[in-house]
Backbone:
């Protein structure tokens, strides 16, 4: 809210600077978001009259004007097309200084001497009205200092008023708060209201819950015209555009007292009765903003005997507004319930200074006096006679006092303020304060609807006595052992495991586009979606982390990266009846050379399926035995991100029958969609919630033998299609317990190996903990292995 | 012919001595040359060997007189040969080590190195301080209902405080994406009895156009303490201690009044700008202070909504924006950088700062 310091000072004489005021406001909880200094930013500019205007001899677009500044006639070159003889203008004399420290001197323009400058409003740092020079209209005599016409300099503060303090949404309201804080007295408002008109309208309020007070009075015989300069200055200082003397008074009263008023042209109203009622289906309102609104049934409206003439507390109708032709005004001053104004404003997306205040809650006792002031001011500026108001109001229930104690307030604050300190600031705020030793009985004034319990009063005491005067305390808490959630514990381990494998952590948004789902071959039907997305790109809650990582891959490759190892830990979403299920997952993408070692290509192989398999094995190592199943097989089951994977080169990791992770190549269609088709991207996707739900026991030492071990290398030729896992399984079964380790060290096809076959070379490590194996022991075992492999998987030793 | 007289032996000795001189032990060019010299002098038929052997033909007295002299010459020759041998070996080693030279200035071979996201690091830095102060970690769903996000937090349907929570609503179901982690306050209080001391870190959503300083997705760390006799001063103590641990012991804090529907009294906490000497800079928006936390004493209305007795229990709650802290700590100017996942960005961070 914009606050003019000059205006504020009319209500409360303050000696401090505007910057000091801003610091005090901050201490009271009102942040000052902006501070603007108003007033003439120029010197040496006077009112002058253009005596004549002639064409410039050497320039098409320039003219040469004779300008009378009251003392002398000057010849001035002017470029504005709207300059004309007879105009009263702002004239910068030689020696004038315009905004930006622009000094006016004698100049020659295209060979013609120019003694000064005729100014536009923007050249003077004033709000622009029309293109070209500022034509001032009749009035000020030539020679008058233009700066003096603009009123005194002012400071305008942009104050953030929190939504609990609507009572401070006006100059007097804020002054009232400051008066309490500084223990000063508000300047009283003098009002001479003569109700000489013997007419009173009739008002009918349907629902006093929605409209606790409605008042309206007639003012007849007004002359609508421009407001006087003082009023224009007030409104302009806080960024409002003056309209006419009647509308300006209602705006002035709103920003002065916080009470919105509305003026109707009484002659445009049908019938003599005013209703405050609910809108009916099909009713419309052509509002003051020139737009027609279809009103849903049930909004609170003001209507005449035919149709709605205002959306209560929000905006009036254009066709009942005060115009230059208006002679009779119906002036409304009312209180509408906060919820009503907010619902109306939201239903129509129509907002106004008035609705902003009603939404937050206005003082129910304010409209009477504010409308009286408004009426008196209208008559003062526009003439006419005022009638007595018709008023409809709910019976006023006195506000119950808040009963609390000094010790209770100190306990809330953890402070040690004395009863005297607290009472002295409360006496500035309360409508009624009773202090009985420790006990306090505080009755809030009608405008402080935010005060209802001891905590509210504790905040008042703290604000006025200073948050800085509350001590720092650490002692009161019982010691407790802090715990992480299982999910956070597991997520931390996953981050360590994946960064150790060289993956960087990515953070992607949870919301994705329908076209992203399409590119990833993921179904959008049924997927939870946002009703009010920011844009199409943000429509759906993600069913998988992988689309985000694919976008990251494309982004980085297009910016010169040729390798990428990324993972993300995040939530994915799925429909679940009338709700949405959320699952924590961790997913990753690998592509390109593993090492940053391009100059040693042998040591920097491209990421393969088996690198991603290692990541999954690392994540799952403590959760149980992994059983691998091919995607599409009966045991593999189905998960949301399956369509993103290459259906042939993809495995599911199952633990105790549960599908816990998936690892595989990227599906070629998705690869094309993300320009990754030549990159060989490998993906993995792990259910982190599943892992977090299971205990991970601490690693338990497996004894190892101090005795020497024996190694044997075997090269086995098998059919090309035989999976290695089958060979390993048969080998382990045949070898028995003496086989400690098996390590595949070569897979070969080519010269020396028949077509359709491959050679798998394994290094076997044998040993026992009770004795050293002899060569004969090992030879016997190897013989048994070779025989079993020949029988079970058709393997033979490579020649 | 072996000398048999003392004179003859002494002549033989002189010859041997000159032979030793002629051999120039310290000039032997390599190990084989040195070996030749050794054989010539000390070999089975070597001159010195012969000289020593010939001592046996002398009288006992001559043996006693001349023996040490001969032995001394032999020791001198042996030491000379050893010295030269070690010199030659050192030279040979040096030559062979020189030949092994590789280009040591080639770039280091870096194994793939992973980096945690800076928001993870920042969130953990924040969380760790509170853990040390006894706060447990709590989580809640991202998709929420109106009660947990608003009404139980004393934000009624028609309350203008909702204006500052631009909300994403879900289609077809009465659910929304949580606009703050304060939802977890409610969930924690619904599922456990006081005393409580929890932080609720996590992701939140606001219906806001994304730009350098606004994100529709961001992270908060919410905190809640409920116990008997908790007051605003405990909030000040805890948050001041937290900020000192996070930003340095010399940091200055400012608690100023503010408004949140779920706390009363409420406060916003600023720290004195640590980028400028309080004179104003872009980081503090030219105010000299950086807003970092929102907090307050739990509003009794919130306790009532979860069935806690507000006469018995009191507490405080706070919320800190993770992105905001990460931007301050790491000098990041554009919020969007956190969600673009540019490797050139991600690779610059990997730390828990506290």
Residues:
């Amino acid at each position: 809210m914009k606050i003019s310091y000059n205006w504020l000072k009319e209500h409360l004489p303050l000696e401090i600077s505007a910057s000091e005021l801003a610091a005090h406001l901050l201490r009271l909880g009102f942040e000052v978001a902006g501070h603007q200094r108003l007033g003439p930013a120029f010197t040496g500019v006077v009112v002058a009259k253009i005596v004549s205007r002639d064409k410039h001899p050497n320039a098409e677009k320039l003219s040469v004007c004779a300008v009378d500044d009251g003392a002398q006639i000057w010849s001035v070159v002017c470029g504005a097309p709207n300059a004309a003889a007879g105009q009263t203008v702002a004239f910068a004399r030689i020696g004038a200084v315009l905004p930006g420290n622009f000094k006016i001197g004698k100049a020659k323009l295209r060979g013609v001497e120019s003694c000064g400058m005729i100014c536009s409003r923007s050249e003077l740092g004033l709000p622009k009205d029309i293109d070209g020079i500022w034509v001032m209209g009749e009035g000020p005599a030539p020679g008058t200092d233009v700066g003096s016409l603009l009123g005194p300099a002012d400071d305008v503060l942009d104050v953030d008023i929190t939504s609990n303090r609507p009572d401070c949404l006006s100059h007097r309201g804020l002054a009232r708060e400051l008066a309490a804080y500084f223990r000063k007295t508000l300047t009283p408002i003098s009002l001479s209201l003569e109700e000489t008109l013997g007419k009173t309208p009739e008002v009918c309020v349907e629902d006093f819950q929605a409209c606790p007070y409605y008042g309206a009075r007639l003012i007849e015989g007004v002359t609508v015209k421009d407001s006087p300069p003082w009023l224009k200055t007030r409104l302009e200082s806080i960024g409002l555009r003056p309209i006419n003397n009647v509308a300006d008074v209602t705006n002035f009263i709103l920003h002065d007292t916080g009470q919105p008023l509305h003026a109707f042209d009484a002659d445009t109203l049908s019938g003599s009765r005013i209703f405050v009622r609910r809108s009916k289906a099909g009713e419309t309102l052509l509002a003051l903003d020139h737009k027609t609104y279809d009103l849903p049934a049930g909004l609170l409206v003001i209507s005449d005997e035919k149709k709605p003439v205002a959306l209560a507390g929000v905006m009036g109708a254009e066709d009942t507004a005060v115009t230059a032709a208006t002679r009779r005004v119906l002036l409304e001053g009312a209180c509408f319930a906060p919820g009503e104004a907010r619902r109306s404003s939201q239903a129509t997306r129509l907002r106004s200074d008035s609705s902003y205040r009603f939404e937050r809650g206005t003082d129910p006792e304010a409209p009477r006096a504010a409308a009286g002031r408004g009426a008196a001011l209208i008559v003062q500026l526009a003439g006419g006679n005022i009638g007595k108001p018709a008023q409809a109001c709910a019976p006023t229930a006195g506000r119950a006092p808040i009963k609390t104690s000094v010790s209770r307030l100190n306990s809330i604050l953890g402070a040690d303020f004395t009863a005297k300190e607290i009472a002295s600031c409360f006496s500035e705020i309360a409508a009624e304060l009773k202090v009985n030793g420790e006990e306090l009985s505080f009755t809030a004034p009608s405008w402080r609807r935010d005060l209802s319990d001891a905590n509210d009063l504790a905040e008042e005491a703290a604000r006025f006595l200073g948050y800085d005067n509350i001590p720092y305390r650490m002692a009161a808490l019982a010691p407790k052992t802090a715990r992480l959630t299982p999910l956070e514990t597991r997520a931390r381990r996953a981050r360590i495991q994946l960064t150790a494998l060289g993956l960087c952590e990515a953070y992607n948004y949870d919301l994705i586009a329908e076209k992203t789902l399409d590119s990833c071959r993921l179904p959008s039907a049924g997927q939870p979606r946002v009703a009010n997305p920011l844009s199409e790109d943000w429509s759906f809650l993600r069913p998988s982390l992988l689309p985000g990582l694919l976008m990251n891959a494309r982004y980085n490759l297009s910016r010169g990266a040729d390798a990428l190892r990324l993972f993300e830990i995040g939530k994915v979403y799925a429909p679940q009846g009338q709700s949405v299920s959320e699952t924590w997952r961790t997913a990753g993408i690998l592509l390109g050379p593993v090492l940053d070692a391009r100059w040693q290509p042998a040591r920097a192989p491209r990421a393969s399926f088996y690198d991603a398999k290692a990541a999954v094995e690392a994540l799952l190592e403590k959760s149980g035995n992994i059983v691998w199943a091919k995607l599409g097989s009966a045991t593999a089951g189905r998960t949301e991100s399956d369509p993103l994977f290459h259906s042939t080169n993809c495995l599911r990791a199952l633990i105790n029958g549960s599908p816990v992770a998936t690892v595989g190549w990227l599906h070629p269609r998705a690869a094309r969609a993300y320009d990754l088709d030549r990159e060989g991207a490998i993906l993995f996707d792990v259910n982190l919630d599943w892992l977090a739900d299971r205990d991970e026991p601490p690693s338990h030492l497996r004894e190892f033998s101090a005795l020497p071990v024996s190694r044997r290398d075997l090269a086995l030729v098998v059919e090309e299609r035989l999976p290695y896992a089958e060979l390993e399984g048969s080998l382990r079964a045949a070898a028995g317990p003496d086989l400690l380790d098996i390590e595949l060290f070569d897979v070969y096809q080519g010269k020396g190996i028949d077509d359709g076959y491959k050679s798998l070379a394994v290094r076997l490590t044998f040993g026992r903990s009770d004795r050293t194996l002899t060569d004969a022991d090992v030879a016997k075992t190897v013989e048994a292995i070779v025989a079993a492999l020949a029988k079970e998987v058709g393997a033979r030793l490579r020649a | 012919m072996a000398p048999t007289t003392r004179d003859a032996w002494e002549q033989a000795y002189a010859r041997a001595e000159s032979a030793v001189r002629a051999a120039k032990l310290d000039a032997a060019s390599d190990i084989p040359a040195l070996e030749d010299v050794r054989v010539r002098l000390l070999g089975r038929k070597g001159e010195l060997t012969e000289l020593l052997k010939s001592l046996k033909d002398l009288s006992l007295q001559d043996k006693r007189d001349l023996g040490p002299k001969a032995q001394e010459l032999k020791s001198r020759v042996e030491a000379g040969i050893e010295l030269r041998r070690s010199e030659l070996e050192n030279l040979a080693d040096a030559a062979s080590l020189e030949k092994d030279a590789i280009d040591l200035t080639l770039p280091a071979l870096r194994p793939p190195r992973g980096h945690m996201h800076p928001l993870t690091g920042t969130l953990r830095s924040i969380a760790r301080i509170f853990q040390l102060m006894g706060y447990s970690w709590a989580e809640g769903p991202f998709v929420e209902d109106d009660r947990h996000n608003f009404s139980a937090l004393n934000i009624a349907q028609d309350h203008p405080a909702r204006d500052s929570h631009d909300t994403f609503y879900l289609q077809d179901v009465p659910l929304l994406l949580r606009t703050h982690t304060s939802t977890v306050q409610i969930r924690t209080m619904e599922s456990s009895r006081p005393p409580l001391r929890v932080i609720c870190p996590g992701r939140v959503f606001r219906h806001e156009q994304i730009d350098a300083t606004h994100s529709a997705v961001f992270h908060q760390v919410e905190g809640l303490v409920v116990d008997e006799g908790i007051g605003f001063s405990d909030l000040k103590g805890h948050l001041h201690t937290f900020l000192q641990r996070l930003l340095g012991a010399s940091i200055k804090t400012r608690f100023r009044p503010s408004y949140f529907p779920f706390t009363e009294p409420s406060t916003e906490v600023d720290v004195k700008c640590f980028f400028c000497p309080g004179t104003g800079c872009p980081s503090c928006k030219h105010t000299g202070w950086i807003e970092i936390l929102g907090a307050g004493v739990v509003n009794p209305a919130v306790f009532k909504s979860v069935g806690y007795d507000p006469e018995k229990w009191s507490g405080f709650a706070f919320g800190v924006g993770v992105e905001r802290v990460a931007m301050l700590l790491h000098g990041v100017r554009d919020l969007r950088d956190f969600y673009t996942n540019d490797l050139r960005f991600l690779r610059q961070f990997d730390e828990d700062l506290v």
Observations:
- The CA atoms of residues 170 and 176 of chain B lie 5 Å apart.
